[in-house]
Amino acid sequence: MRIDVISIFPAYLDALQLSLAGKAQAAGLLEIAAHDLREFTRDKHRSVDDTPYGGGAGMVMKPEPWGEALDTVTTDEAVIIVPTPSGEVFTQRTAERLSGERHLVFACGRYEGIDQRVMDHAATRWRVEEISLGDFVLNGGEVAALAMIEAVVRLIPGFMSNPESLVEESHGDDGLLEYPVYTKPASWRELDVPDVLLSGNHAAIAAWRREKAVERTQDRRPDLTGEM
Ligand code: 6GU
């Protein structure tokens, strides 16, 4: 997979050289490049924003640099992802779908957002998705892009050193949150690991884990259980 990120703060994406994405790049499964939006300006002040038509607070990102940047980095097979709190909500299903793509371009806006014509024009040439991480507001799309990239990249076939760990995790196919996990020592600060996990009875362990996953989901995320 190839991932390009366009931002006025490309240094945010330095974190991708660490950990998961760093390993995937080293293994040749992934190529990530961050681009500075200001490199695509043509005026001497390298300006990327201006006041909103219709008035209101804040600034809006100008269309011209975005047009130039997307024309430069986007290939025919690419999907353009625009992180925005007004997008469709990103879920594990989104991550799974995107992990099968060959090229993702993240267009990270700041301020009050990007001139809508950028997305409208891009949508005439490429697939474009405006995606949100949830119901809260970040100052820009960079941190959201980092989160989405990590969620996608760990699903690329051949990427995880232990792919079994993908089978049983929160937001997996059973729609349940992950059960609680424990490791040694069996007793710590007078708290004991549940006996069943030490029993060696695999059927009993599976049943206990399922019960805890259901309890936890009902308690923390009743919206996932179908009943609100
Ligand atoms: Cl994707 N972007 C921004 N700026 N804020 C957010 C978000 C995205 N998702 C939740 N809040």
From TrEMBL:
Catalytic activity: guanosine(37) in tRNA + S-adenosyl-L-methionine = N(1)-methylguanosine(37) in tRNA + S-adenosyl-L-homocysteine + H(+)
Binding sites annotated in the UniProt record for S-adenosyl-L-methionine: 109, 133-138
Start and end residues of each tRNA methyltransferase TRMD/TRM10-type domain: 1-225
MF-aspect GO terms: tRNA (guanine(37)-N1)-methyltransferase activity
Database matches in Gene3D superfamilies: 3.40.1280.10, tRNA(m1g37)methyltransferase, domain 2
SUPFAM superfamilies per UniProt: alpha/beta knot
Keywords: Cytoplasm, Methyltransferase, S-adenosyl-L-methionine, Transferase, tRNA processing
Keyword Methyltransferase tagged: yes
Subcellular locations according to the entry: Cytoplasm
Domain of life: Bacteria
Biological process (GO), any one: methylation
Catalytic activity, EC: 2.1.1.228
Broad enzyme group: transferase
NCBIfam families (UniProt xref): PRK00026.1, trmD
Family designation: Belongs to the RNA methyltransferase TrmD family.
Function per UniProt: Specifically methylates guanosine-37 in various tRNAs.
The protein's assembly and partners: Homodimer.
HAMAP family per the UniProt record, alphabetical: TrmD
Protein name listed in UniProt: tRNA (guanine-N(1)-)-methyltransferase
Record organism: Aeromicrobium panaciterrae
Gene from which this protein is expressed: trmD
